[in-house]
Design goal:
seven-stranded mixed β-sheet, four-stranded antiparallel β-sheet, mainly beta, 48% strand
């Protein structure tokens, strides 16, 4: 089974930027969609961003729209989450996830994200 590994988390100050990476254990891995989710202490898991694997289309959660960007490097099969203008409320564990089942027409937040990474901690101090 494919594994996803996140990296790039850390402790930053409000207003700073971070870039998270999600690598797959198989270079030939493909999916219908890849997403980033986060869980803040004491809160439910929250949808952050997602994009279709090899088709145009991305979606962002309302709280990160305009500040975060999801992208994919085709050569390395790495998914990125560029986070700018970080705020203390962005603090949490960020998870990369893959949806290996379709159909393609599924709205991005509604895919069955069935493969998950172990998460990387992002802490934003005020």
């Amino acid at each position: 089974q494919v594994h996803l590994v996140e990296s790039g988390g850390g402790l930053v100050q409000a207003g700073d930027s971070l870039k998270l990476s999600c690598t797959t254990s198989e270079r030939t891995f493909s999916a219908y969609a890849m997403g980033w989710f986060r869980r803040a202490p004491g809160k439910e898991r929250e949808f952050v961003a997602a994009r279709r694997w090899n088709r145009i289309g991305s979606k962002y959660g309302d709280s990160v729209k305009g500040r975060f960007t999801i992208s994919r490097d085709e050569d390395s099969n790495t998914i990125y989450l560029q986070m700018n203008g970080l705020r203390p409320e962005d603090t949490g564990v960020y998870y990369c996830a893959a949806a290996t089942r379709g159909p393609w027409s599924t709205p991005l937040p509604d895919f069955d994200y069935n493969v998950w990474g172990q998460g990387t901690q992002v802490t934003v101090s005020s």
